[in-house]
Q: What sequence folds into this?
């Protein structure tokens, strides 16, 4: 049987890693796929650049459209990133009857519905395991391994840059700006780190996971997104005093009212396994009704961890080249005509617990005013801590942990508290999730 011919769009870090894995493990991969897999063409912006992979048998071009239009290529691997050009190339490859493998989370989160429909119409596959959590096979786990379950919720550390920053802030007692600068020097954060530290990257990935978990269309534009740039060294310290760690989580949860789709800093009990995932590592906690909580941990980025997922997708595609297109595993786990119309909840309708930190003038009656406002909104206090201010002698930092409450009630309470003459500046609010089996 002839080898399956592969074309790679983008021969950078992940592209080179993919070539290396395919080359190094060629025999093992062929045994699994049933056919030899051969990279015959790749695109790169700089033809003279030295590559981190063997390119002797690969025709390299600056024109990516030459690959998607090449009649000899059966599978196109999209690794160029971005959205506009990637979308054009992927749709052209599909129109030409080629299967596609991509690591592009933004492309799938924003344009996946259109891309999957085009692929279904043409009878080809679009595989995207590498788009979420690097080398962790989380998409396959939810889509296939947990197919017998009704997924109730999932929570993930799905951006290594943010996790590295929060880990360093906790372990070394450093502030956000200092750790971010170091992350940029180490190559963990981009020169413009907005997508990572403000949660956009995680929201792309969460959108994909939620669609697969709950059988809903991809709806990135409805995700609530909040970053970690306002987290202080003091917040990390106070969280620990209460037995929590701060993690930047993507959370998707099915409720009777709809689906929660949210990315934000979250206090997690330090005894939870996911609270102990440190550095640039990723982890996703998934709760199924039959299996209970399951945790998936591993490298969320890097040349070969991501290439591991890309190559796994290539093997899946090769295995199904001759199968009936109508009997393949659906792109979003559920049959296309069986997707649910469950709405995405607005953040103000989400129920959770809260960590509140406020700077107060140290005088009698201040806390009575604060607790009165919280009580009027039916917000009960679980714990409270008062610390001497590092700013002035006549003020103090007050930290309150609350029980679960609808967010719009908390929004109203915070507005009232900030209007008090005895409150200095804004109230810091971080959500708390227990991530236990009984999530009420």
A:
């Amino acid at each position: 049987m002839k080898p399956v011919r592969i074309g790679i769009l983008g021969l950078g870090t992940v592209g080179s890693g993919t070539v290396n894995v395919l080359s190094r493990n060629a025999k093992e991969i062929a045994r699994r796929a049933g056919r030899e897999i051969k990279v015959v063409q790749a695109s790169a912006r700089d033809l003279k650049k030295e590559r981190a992979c063997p390119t002797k048998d690969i025709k390299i071009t600056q024109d990516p459209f030459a690959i998607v239009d090449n009649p000899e290529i059966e599978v196109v691997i999209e690794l160029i990133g971005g959205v506009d050009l990637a979308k054009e190339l992927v749709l052209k490859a599909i129109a030409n009857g080629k299967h596609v493998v991509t690591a592009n989370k933004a492309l799938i989160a924003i344009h996946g519905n259109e891309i999957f429909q085009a692929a279904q119409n043409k009878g080809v596959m679009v595989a995207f395991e590498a788009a979420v959590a690097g080398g962790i096979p989380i998409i396959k786990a939810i889509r296939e391994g947990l197919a017998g379950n009704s997924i109730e919720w999932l929570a993930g550390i799905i951006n290594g840059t943010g996790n590295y920053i929060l880990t360093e802030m906790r372990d070394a007692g450093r502030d956000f700006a200092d750790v971010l600068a170091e992350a940029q020097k180490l190559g963990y954060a981009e020169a413009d780190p907005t997508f990572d530290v403000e949660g956009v990257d995680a929201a792309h990935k969460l959108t994909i996971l939620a669609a697969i978990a709950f059988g809903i269309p991809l709806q990135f534009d409805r995700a609530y997104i909040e970053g970690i740039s306002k987290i202080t060294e003091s917040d990390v310290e106070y969280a620990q005093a209460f037995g929590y760690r701060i993690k930047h989580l993507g959370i998707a949860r099915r409720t009777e009212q709809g689906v929660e789709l949210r990315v934000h800093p979250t206090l997690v009990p330090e005894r939870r396994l996911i609270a102990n995932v440190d550095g640039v590592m990723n982890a996703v906690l998934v709760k199924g009704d039959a299996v209970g909580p399951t945790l998936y941990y591993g490298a969320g980025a890097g040349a070969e961890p991501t290439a591991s997922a890309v190559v796994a997708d290539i093997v899946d595609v090769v295995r199904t080249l001759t199968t009936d297109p109508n009997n393949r595993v659906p792109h979003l786990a559920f049959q296309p005509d069986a997707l649910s119309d469950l709405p995405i909840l607005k953040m103000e309708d989400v129920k959770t617990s809260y960590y509140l930190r406020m700077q107060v003038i140290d005088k009698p009656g201040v806390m009575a005013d604060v607790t009165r406002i919280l009580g009027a909104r039916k917000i009960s206090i679980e714990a409270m801590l008062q610390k001497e201010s590092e700013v002035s002698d006549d003020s103090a930092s007050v930290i309150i942990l609350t029980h679960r409450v609808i967010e719009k009630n908390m929004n109203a309470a915070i507005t009232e508290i900030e209007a008090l003459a005895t409150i200095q500046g804004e109230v810091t609010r971080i959500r708390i999730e227990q991530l236990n089996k009984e999530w009420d």
